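Chapter review: from sequence to fold.
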Amino acid sequence: MIEKLPVTQSTGMLQDEVRRLRRAVDELSILNDLARAIGASLNGEEIMQIIIRRSLRAVNADQEVITLVEEEQKSMKTLIRTMVSSADAPEYHLHQALLGWMHLNKKPLVVDDPQNDPRFRGVQWDSSIHTVLCVPLIVKSELRGVLTVYNKKDGKSFTTDDQRLLAIISAQSAQVIENARLIEEEKLYIKMQQEVGLAAKIQLGLLPRTKPDIAGYDICARTIPAQSVGSDYFDFIPKNDGRLAICLGDVSGKGLPASLLMANLQATLRWQTLVSQQPLECMVRSYKLLFESTNPEKFAILFYGIIDSTHRTIHYTNTGHDWPFLISKDASIRRLRTGGLLLGMFEQATYEDENIPLLPGDLLVIQSDGISEAFDIHQEQIGEKRLQDLLLEHKDRSAEEIIDAVVREVRKHAEANPQSDDITIMVIKRL
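The token string follows.
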């Protein structure tokens, strides 16, 4: 004999089942609507707004925030927020303690009494926060963010159904949100690349565009940056008395910071060349200006000389730069070492200079360490001996042909090994 339930009890159970089914239909409708809306948009910010608006409506909350976790879990940032409460409501921020809990547990969290919750002792909550629901955004088992809703609009606590629905929305949206983060990073990277490209064009524009035209001399120079912007520098600076200042240098560091220091050095030297008569005077003044305008860990090495075409001499000083090769017509070699300390490293520095003749057939080669220290795939340097032999082999060629030969040899030596340092070379031939 089948026992019949009382009519009232049977009716109540039926009503509960109807409410459960209606809730399930509503949830499916919300999730279907969310999936369709996300799939119809390619705009990251618009997708985030869709997720938040649908989530707020689904759990009937006042405010929602999506917070992304930065790489290596060191920091976090709010990606986007939406509020449906009054315009003067405060903007809530995910507390670091909640983020820490999410890192450890990676599951939904409800805080019904923030001020007295024993899990978050010491946390200073905004007095207008009454209840909080957090769900993790998980991508490949890693926490990529947290979706947080604040204050259920009816004043009640968030239910287990709210937790479950928001967790489903989170699972459905996590990869989309991660893609939005990657798109944002890609936009920043593209912008940075554009800025670096612009910096490279500006830097290239600062270098001499033509070779100096001095009777009796063949002069040429070239620089090949290892990165988009370089830290090497060369210049030809005509003086008012008809002499020509030449310089080739290398500043500490790589990338944009080094390129800025290089531009500073160039501007300093161009100005000091105009007001200084001799290399020693120019270096002392430039050293003081560079030291006062840069950090102590920043410095420059530089070969600076003044070619006097009337007296056929070069008056030079060398501030820690690779010693240039002076090769005479009879193939004897001298290295130009006279100078002093690196530019800008110490508060006080003294320098020496030297005035030497440039005889017919003399070849002066000024090079950065990116040439002699170029590595092959076995991490062996090309070395100064090989460079010296190469210069002797090609000493009777034109200045440009000598530079071409050096660059070819460096690239041949490096083979598939990427260029690790700027390559800069200047060749001066006395005809």
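Two observations follow directly from the output. The chain is about 40% helix and 25% strand. The two ends are 124 Å apart (CA to CA).
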